[in-house]
Fold these 2 entries.
Entry 1:
Amino acid sequence: MPRITLVTGQWKQLVLVVLIGANLRPFLTAPGPILTDIVTDTGMGYPSLAMLTLLPMLLMGIGAFVAPGIQAVVGTRRGILAALAVLTAGSLLRSVAFGSAWLVLTAALCGAGVAFIQAAFPGIIKEKFPKTIPIVTGLYSCMIMGGGALGARLTPVLVNSGYSWRLALASMAVPAVFALCAAYWAASDTKAVKPDSSLTRRLLRRPRTWALMAAFGLVNAGYSSMVAWLAPYYQAAGLSNSQSGNLVAVMAIAQAASALVLPTLARRNVDRRPWLWTTLVLQAAGFLGLAVVPLAFPALWVGICGAGLGGSFALAIVTALDHLDRPEQAGALVALMQGGGFLIAATGPFAAALLGNWSGSFASAWVMHLACVTITFFIYARFRPERYGEVFRPLLA
């Protein structure tokens, strides 16, 4: 893999990439392995528990649309500092979350902070690392998913060591404080302009924009359901909270590795579809194993599903960027894909909870996501690179 050569001052920005990336998922993955303790204490049902994932994902989707405008008004540095402060506060407030409504509110606070950061950070990477964008973006993606592994692994360890589930969740504020300090030390303003609303409208008139949203959303619905329900699914099958937390960590580590490796392997192929289909095959095998023989090889099913999800996330962004040559147009398309996609993905945990209540098992949810993977396969079939210019040319020439 190519080596990152840093000029003076860039190493501070790289530290920022690592620390901020590592804080964007722990608040999502941390509750899953200890949901049994949360339910025992609060009496929350599946629909309420689904809100812990659904609300942040909704906010991430909305953030892709509104955060660039906020960034243009308040500035990148102040926006990042405020977002990290909100994320830190959301985690800290979980230490006094004595009711389900309060716990859901903390999830919304964390999601709001992450929503701004996720929208702003690709532009920061592009400006600060213009010659190594793919490498630094891969590192950023790895840290996002590696942070998810940290959240899933740490909370059951703390609970089993005698800490309350509230303090275990609140511990996610510690790395957020480090990121906040790093941002105060290293963050600087980047060029930020208000989004071109006419460009957004023109993109939304094209069916390909909606196809990209749908594919991104259907795949990430699987991720959001895995984050919310994988640990409870295996705890119901007899595994401990620590063992189920390990499985969520395996998923996140496999995601991180795949998000870094698959785009690198695919970089010489103009047609990304074979690699996109590969990620769907991995997901399909994983969801099928989870639904049919979950206890036979749990780490295998979780690992290959995670690899498919992580690779698909990264390759979807690359594929969207491939469609347009002008950076501002390609960036707007990616923002729309992620915004609409996260709104779709937010429905995953809630739909899984409803199916689980109806059928008595989350196995039905994995079958649902297997169907989503199948639909996505046919959407990807339309992404022929020789037609990229054609599908947008009438409006963006």
Note: DSSP finds 18 helices and no strands in the chain.
Entry 2:
Amino acid sequence: MDFLVQNWMLVAVAIGSATMLVWPAVSGAGWTGVTPTEAVTLINREKAVVIDVCSPEEYAAGHVMGARNIPLDVLLQQLPQAVKNKATPLVLVCASGFRSRRAVAVAKKLGYERAVSLAGGLAAWRSANLPIQKA
């Protein structure tokens, strides 16, 4: 006990370091989704359906080739009509990866257990020099 009292600052630094190491796992901040390469593999090998959850304006400006546009705010209502087979893998995409991450939660709530988000979104797709389609 004397050690803890005499070295309180060292103990505080150790506790702070441990908290910073554990926080990403607890908060979900460490979650990344699939890379563009992994997404292409899902699309080619497992016939994954790409759902773009951006607004129609963002979708028209550029999207993943063959992606269907279902904005995040209507995903709960429209996804069951767009993809009837819940065993089908889904790759959810947005501009940066934040909305698609929320879309994964919506898809899983609907029973699509194989739903994943494209880490980094369309920006990561473009960085990987993968094809973009404009409407």
Note: The mean pLDDT is 90.
